[in-house]
Design goal:
The complex is a heterotrimer of chains A (439), B (285) and C (315).
Chain A (H helix, E strand, L loop, with lengths): L2 H20 L22 E7 L4 H17 L3 E7 L2 H13 L6 E4 L2 H9 L7 H5 L9 H5 L2 E2 L2 E2 L1 E8 L1 E5 H6 L9 H13 L3 E3 L7 H24 L8 H15 L12 H9 L3 E6 L3 H8 L10 E4 L14 E10 L5 H10 L2 H9 L17 H12 L3 E3 L1 H4 L2 H16 L4 H15 L2
Parallel strand pairs in A: 1-2, 1-3, 8-9, 11-12
Antiparallel strand pairs in A: 3-11, 4-5, 6-11, 7-9, 7-10
Helix pairs in contact in A: 9-10, 9-17, 10-18, 11-12, 17-18
Chain B lengths: L6 H37 L3 H6 L11 H7 L2 H34 L5 H13 L2 H14 L6 H26 L2 H9 L4 H12 L1 H17 L2 H6 L8 H11 L4 H32 L5
Helix pairs in contact in B: 1-13, 4-7, 4-10, 5-7, 7-10, 10-13, 12-13
Chain C lengths: L7 H8 L3 H36 L2 E2 L8 E2 L3 H8 L1 H32 L6 H13 L2 H12 L7 H8 L15 H26 L3 H9 L4 H12 L1 H16 L3 H7 L10 H11 L3 H26 L9
Antiparallel strand pairs in C: 1-2
Classes of the chains: A alpha/beta (439), B mainly alpha (285), C mainly alpha (315).
């Protein structure tokens, strides 16, 4: 081989790598090709939309709604990315850090969303909401979850409360006629179930957030709104008595060993199977539980008529009202680079018709006035009423607070369940993180 | 064996030792196979069967899950992406590493130790540790959501080990060969391309095979680099699938088993190459 | 970076004295090294420096890093109990690897040996787990480890025994790490076995036979002849095993996410949690730097102790 050729080859090689390293591949379709044509044909627009409804019927509904919209607006293309919950969180974290959010994407509002807002990653849609009374179609509490410092960045599509899903048959077997209304009764019922040889509670504490509900709800019942507000605004602290008391009460429960074998490493899907195969009597979970139980049962029918619901019992002497609720919902927010069409599309998604369709397949507990008619499931109606009746509605801590604090809450509560942390240590860990992150 | 008088004694002894050998080895084979067999059983059951009778042999086998996955375009798309990444990364590693290894093995220059030490740093900063900053770099270079990003990162993090393997092999090739080649008027590139590389084929195939395995199974890099579903690789799809069908373990089993089929076919073909390559490349310091 | 140093005297020996030759050799060195160097500098070296930079900030990953905190992250990490647990778990995995996994691999390599009929079969099977992805291995072991005997094979077998009780493999803080280690061993023992097989193949059969003729039994033969001759392979295998243990990630993350209550936390899961779950990227970067320093220190000390000219000579 000649010298020239080898030199040439080497050069090509180097060049190729240099180019590959620097070049900006141009395979991606541009988000919005704005070529204002002379005629009146509308500009072609692509909306990117990320949601997490991976179940077949729900995924199909979103696709169908998108198709409906694009049929009416031929210049708009909706690019849907469906991601499973955990994958979505990881992926979203990376795109947000790269400063390139999708146009419309799933959000739970609260602290995580606020952090995106502070980084300038979301679009302010306050003006759009004020136009044509769009704002008034929502229940104000749910809409508020997607606002920060008086500005709106997204809209809810679903709102619900955490409560107890229980197996009526198993309760009857243990001789329990009425669901418990106080924490003492609750503990008694747990003992009765254990005595009857039934695992009282299903829990997937390996995922951490299912256990977080327990501690948070206890704090809501014991401390009420005042305790959380004080801790959050640093006039009080998460080391205040109610939060420690919540840990103490939780560990009283844990001492009864009410959970299925191996709950500490189990996941939420495991928890569903335990409930759906009737191996445990109850489960503290949000409005999405019945659908999940259906998916997890052998015949896909779930627990059917055996499934019941009751709110978290009151804690004797607690400052919180028995009607107060811990919960949250799902919604969509708008990325900073979104075209105006994205907001219009969101408006379409949150219309009454669309919400009725979502409620019909049990996807959402509606937040748009008048969409409750779609809600046929009596249990979900209970949840919806429960959430609506709450005078104080506490968003899940891991959503209400910045992600770092939320993660510490969940980690610390797992320590409470495992007995590796005392209530004081858990509270201290949460307070340390909140002091640093909540400003 | 060379001493005929001891043969009868040898045979009894040998029989016992062979028996023990085979027993132990067979036990390990069983242990290696248990997870795999369970997975294949699961893949051939319906969802209900998996939940009610998870351990029994799937008779009759249910092909529904397999068929439904294979009839989904997304599976083939993932297969394609995995193949593209694997082929490109392997070609890149072979080319780049053999060039560098050649310089380190056959050429002398003053700063050589510095460069060799520089590359060994790669062993101590693996992609698991580097994933955050690497993500920043890709972001700056606008390589997020591009298969190119995955490929280049995979190549970069496979350099250190493979350069060292090849260097060991290249060093073992007698210096006389090089001298003779230069006498005959070969250029350095001629020697590298026409004499050294053909001689190093076993080592090159070992490097290629190991690179392919690592690239094919890589989850972390595609996970952070790729957003677009159309660019997903198989491990990424597996993870997504696991979340999506959290309840349908039969379906997950089917997907996982299917995603491994190409690896296993490839492995059965390349096994000899890997072993002989690693053996041939074993150069004692 | 100047990849074109001039070292005329050495080149002279091989290539004559012409300055054009010298120039050409330097050009060759430069061109041959460049591709590797460019990739390496961009994706490995530059990120190291970037990590160092970000580790000095309290940074959430959005927008530029502005909250300079000096060495606070590094100090906070050292006082975090979970980091120390992760470190301890790393040492645990290393120790288990050295005490169980590598001897197992070596024993199997010797058993498979060089003349056993069917050796190719065993070799092929044993290396197979290494070929399969970590994601797949993790999912398979999750199935096996399920706490419910009606869903997890291991517990189903356990309850078959009279008085046998299901063990919550991945839920018991005392069992989870050994359980994860078992999965790691399943995945990686074949790789080390292959290294040893390769090493064994390079020992001339005559040496072992000479030993036998001199009256050594197989154990003596193994410990006095084979083992010392495998020295460099073993050193490489140990080195790779220690680095691999310290960097263990995907398998653990999918099986346990480092839990329950950090019982199976490794340095890599700890770092990932801060970077991608808590968005504390400055802190996460500092963890990465610690990991790098730990591996680097180990490498330097190991090289000094074993007098290996470079890290992978046994390969």
């Amino acid at each position: 081989m000649s010298r020239k050729l080898y030199t040439f080859l080497s050069l090509v090689l180097v060049l190729a790598f240099a180019l590959a390293a620097c070049a900006k591949p141009t395979t991606q379709a541009p988000a919005a090709t704005s070529k204002p044509a002379a005629t009146n044909t509308p500009v072609k627009v692509t909306i990117t939309w990320w949601h997490i409804q991976v179940a077949d019927d729900q995924k199909a509904l979103w696709q169908q709604l998108a198709d409906q919209y694009t049929a009416a607006h031929p210049n708009v293309t909706v690019e849907i990315t469906v991601l499973e919950n955990e994958a979505f969180k990881t992926k979203l974290a990376t795109v947000m850090q790269s400063g390139d959010p999708p146009d419309i994407f799933q959000s739970w509002g609260g602290g995580t969303m606020n952090e995106y807002v502070s980084a300038g990653l979301l679009k302010d849609i306050t003006a759009d909401l004020d136009k044509d009374g769009w704002r008034n179609t929502f229940s104000p509490g749910a809409l508020g979850v997607y606002s920060y410092k008086g500005k709106n960045y997204g809209v809810p599509r679903d709102m619900g409360a955490v409560g107890f899903w229980y197996n009526k048959d198993l309760f009857a077997q243990a001789g329990i006629t009425n669901p418990p209304t106080t924490w003492t009764e609750f503990l008694d019922d747990v003992k009765k179930l254990k005595a009857a040889g039934i695992t009282p509670i299903a829990l997937g504490e390996g995922d951490k957030w299912p256990g977080g509900f327990w501690w948070e709800y206890l704090a809501v019942r014991i401390g009420g709104k005042a305790a959380f507000d004080a801790a959050y605004s640093h006039t009080g602290a998460f080391t205040d008595a109610p939060f420690i008391e919540a840990g103490v009460k939780l560990q009283e429960l844990v001492a009864l060993e009410p959970f299925q074998e191996g709950f500490l490493g189990a996941t939420w899907p495991d928890e569903q199977v335990v409930m759906a195969t009737e191996k445990a009597a109850m489960d503290l979970m949000g409005q999405w539980a019945p659908g999940a139980f259906k998916d997890a049962s052998v015949d896909k029918m779930g627990l059917g008529d055996k499934l019941g619901w009751f709110p978290f019992p009151a804690v004797e002497g607690g400052a919180g009202d028995a009607a107060d609720a811990l919960g949250g919902g799902n919604g969509f927010v708008i990325g900073k680079n979104a075209p105006p069409e994205a907001v219009d599309f969101l408006k379409f998604l949150s219309s009454v018709d669309s919400q009725v369709a979502q409620a019909k397949i049990g996807l959402s507990v509606p937040v748009v006035n008048g969409a409750e008619v779609g809600l046929s499931d009596p249990m979900l109606l209970l949840v919806q009423k429960g959430a609506a009746a709450a005078k104080y509605f506490q968003l899940y801590y891991d959503q209400a607070m910045p992600p770092a604090v939320g993660s510490v809450v969940n980690d610390s509560v797992q320590g409470l369940f495992a007995g590796t942390l005392t209530p004081e240590q858990a509270a201290q860990a949460i307070e340390d993180s909140a002091k640093k992150e909540v400003k | 064996m060379t001493l005929p008088y001891s043969r009868p004694r040898w045979n009894t002894k040998k029989f016992v030792s062979r028996f023990i050998q085979y027993s132990v080895l067979s036990l390990i084979v069983v242990i290696v196979f248990v997870p795999l067999v369970m997975l294949i059983f699961g893949a051939l059951k319906t969802r209900g069967e998996f939940m009610t009778r998870p351990y029994v042999v799937p008779i009759p086998p249910r092909w529904e899950n397999i068929i439904s996955i294979l009839s989904h375009a997304s599976f083939w798309l993932m297969l394609r992406n995995s193949l593209v990444v694997m082929v490109a990364a392997t070609a890149g590693v072979l080319l780049v590493c053999s060039l560098a290894a050649f310089v380190f093995a056959r050429m002398e220059f003053r700063s050589k130790p510095i460069f060799i030490n520089l590359f060994t740093v790669g062993l101590m900063f693996p992609i698991n540790v580097a994933i955050l900053p690497v993500y920043f770099v890709l972001r700056q270079m606008d390589m997020i959501d591009k298969l190119w990003g995955v490929i280049l990162v995979q190549i970069a993090f496979q350099l250190s080990g493979n350069i060292m393997i090849l260097r060991g092999f290249f060093t073992a090739i007698p210096a006389e060969l090089q001298d003779a080649a230069y006498m005959d008027g070969c250029t350095v590139f001629d020697f590298f391309w026409r004499i050294l590389l053909p001689l190093a084929r076993p080592a090159l195939s070992a490097v290629a095979a190991l690179t392919m395995i690592v690239s094919w199974n890589d989850l972390l890099v595609p996970l952070v680099v790729i957003n677009n579903e159309k660019l997903w690789t198989l491990p990424l799809g597996t993870m997504q699938f696991q979340g999506q069908y959290g309840q349908d373990l039969a379906m997950i089993s089917a997907f996982v088993a299917l995603s491994a089929v190409p690896t296993i076919i490839f492995y059965l073909f390349a096994e000899r190459q890997i072993v002989s390559g690693l053996t041939a490349g074993a150069v004692k310091g | 970076m100047q990849p074109i140093p001039a070292i005329p005297d050495i080149l002279k020996l091989k290539r004559g004295t012409g300055s054009s030759h010298r120039f050409q050799d330097n050009l060759t060195i430069a061109l041959f090294l460049l591709p590797a160097l460019i990739l390496f500098l961009i994706f490995v070296i530059y990120p190291i420096f970037q990590s160092v930079y970000y580790s000095l900030f309290d940074w959430k990953g959005f927008g530029p890093a502005v909250d300079f905190v000096g060495l606070d992250n590094f100090i906070n990490i050292l006082t975090d109990k979970v980091f120390l647990i992760a470190l301890r778990n790393g040492v645990f995995i290393i120790a288990f690897s050295l005490v169980f996994q590598l001897p197992l691999s070596l024993a199997l390599a010797v058993l498979v040996g060089r003349d056993l009929p069917g050796r190719v079969f065993f070799r092929t099977i044993f290396f197979m787990p290494y070929v399969l992805s970590e994601v797949m291995a993790a999912i398979m072991w999750l199935f096996l480890y399920n706490a419910d005997p009606e869903r997890g094979l291991l517990n189903a077998l356990l309850v078959l025994f009279p008085g046998g009780k299901a063990i919550p493999w991945l839920s018991d803080t005392n069992i989870v790490l050994p359980a994860v280690f078992l999965a790691i061993t399943w995945k990686y023992f074949g790789f080390h076995m292959l290294l040893y097989l390769a090493g064994l193949q390079n020992i001339p059969i005559e040496i072992e036979e000479a030993g036998r003729v001199d009256g050594a039994n197989s154990f003596q033969n193994f410990f006095y002849i084979t083992l010392p001759l495998l020295g460099s392979t073993i050193r490489t295998s140990v080195y790779l095993s220690v680095l691999g243990s310290l960097q263990q990630f995907i398998l653990v993350w999918i099986m346990t996410k480092g839990g329950p209550v950090n019982a199976s936390e490794t340095l890599a899961t700890y770092m990932y949690r801060f970077g991608f779950v808590r968005f504390q990227l400055g802190y996460g970067s500092a963890v990465a730097i610690y990991m790098f320093l730990i591996c680097l220190t180990f490498s330097l000390v190991y090289r000094r102790l074993t007098r290996q000219p470079d890290y992978l000579t046994g390969l």
